[in-house]
Amino acid sequence: MRRGCTVEQFLGPVGSPGRPGVRYTEIRPRATSYEVYLHTCEDVGHETFMDLVEFPPFVQDVRDAEDAEEDFGELLGVTEDPYSALVLAEERTGAVRGRWVNEGLTQDEYRDFVRAGRPSGAWPAGRP
């Protein structure tokens, strides 16, 4: 983040077996601040389609789908320093400090999730 690069973290499944979704969080460095986002999208991928940014947003109410398409991702907060951004993401999303990856690598984590059979339980080390 100090180099001005976005970091992300795959958070795992949401929804139900009949309507599966996945979540990931993102910290975007800006000129003088850091923005923390939570992305929740439909789990429509497979081993050859893993680009989470291309997945449709996971919305609770179909009437909200059009708005979600335009503003994909929920801004959780803005901080002045990278440490505060990490703390905010951890507190609001359950992110784990040692699991941040460079932008785009959440696709690899999603692929691992798919290959593992889309487990609904806990990840290794008790991570949800």
What is the structure about, briefly put?
The protein is α+β, with helices and mostly antiparallel strands and 128 residues long.
Give short descriptive properties of this protein.
about 130 residues; 3 helices; about 30% strand
Please provide a written account of the structure.
It is built from 3 helices and 5 strands; from the N terminus they run E-E-E-H-E-H-E-H. The protein is of the alpha+beta class and 128 residues long. A hairpin with a 2-residue loop joins strand 1 (7-16) and strand 2. The longest helix has 12 residues, at 82-93.
Average pLDDT, rounded to a whole number, is: 87
Summarize the main sheet: 5 strands, antiparallel
Q: Which residues form runs of ≥5 with pLDDT under 50? A: 124-128
What distance separates the N and C termini?
24 Å
Number of helices: 3
Structural class, by secondary structure, is alpha+beta
Strand fraction: 25-35%
Rounded to the nearest angstrom, the radius of gyration is 14 Å
Secondary structure blueprint with pairings:
Layout: E1 7-16, E2 19-29, E3 34-42, H1 65-70, E4 74-79, H2 82-93, E5 101-102, H3 106-115
Antiparallel strand pairs: 1-2, 1-5, 2-3, 3-4
